[in-house]
Write the structure tokens for this entry.
Amino acid sequence: MFKKLIDNAAAKSPWLFHINAGSCNGCDIELVAVLTPRYDAERLGFKLAGTPRHADIVVVSGPVTVQSKDRVLRTIEQVPDPKVIVTLGSCPRSCNVFKGSYSVAGPLDKYVPIDVSIAGCAPKPEAIIDGLALAAKILKEKREAMK
Amino acid sequence: MLPFIKEAVEQLFSKPSTEAYPAVDVPAAPGYRGRIVFHADKCISCGMCERVCAGGAISTTSEETEEGTLITRRFFLGSCTFCASCADFCVKNAIELTTDYHMVARDESELVVTGTYLKKKPVKKAAPAVEESACTVKARDDGLPVNDPNRCVYCTLCAKKCPAGAITVDRKEKIWKLDEDKCIGCGTCHEVCPKKCIIM
């Protein structure tokens, strides 16, 4: 009985972990704006987790630079299954304007499958809320599939 | 103490400052650069958008059919910086950046905007005989440059690039003159000439 209660509660409160993989900080600021009182993602249950081991949703911003690649992958591996990987902005999806640079090892889908991509440069906070809502839906589907 | 109580009571009855976003739709500010809309019927396939695109988001594929060439332009929003350079450079205003910001996708194909149009084959005309004007001057023995007036367009590029300032070009009178004393025979004029009419 308790397990069901915990499952229900967990489904309504997906925790985020944010990784900056060499982002210009534009997307990061927008993600922080989503957590501020004006957009307040916490009313939808999203909460920024301090460690990847507590997280359900991983939000990656930035084109995955050579320096950050190993650390990003190590951090994503630490997130327990089921996890949802969300790309924030154009960079992790396709490297954007950094395409072909010697110091960029991305895009992210070379290494891990991307579940949700939020387009925009940087995306509007409302678009991020849309993306997180979709991520929560996918997380629920993944949980069902794991049972 | 009193002002704080006043503020507290005021805030208790005022509207929340949080936007009720998923329930109430928030329109983007006018001029917001969001999802690209491509009007394929206006495109004249100059390719300028593809050239100015910073993120390399625009690609073109063409397919030959009986009626002409079927050209498909593809905009990948996952690689777009939304700088609107493509829309600015488009002479026919065929590209438009709308205020639609709902660009969330599970799959890459949802972030692709495409447009296809037919470029009709031109009616075939007899090709005019192209006369390749033959070189009329011979290279000099002393290694100094010589200009072929038949091919020269008098662009003055050679005069501008000459490190010794030995060449003077008059565009109006169509005169190309070399100061033999100043010329050092470096060959810069020969290198820069767009028509390759300076012979050394």
The domain at 2-146 of chain A is CATH 3.40.50.12280 (Rossmann fold).
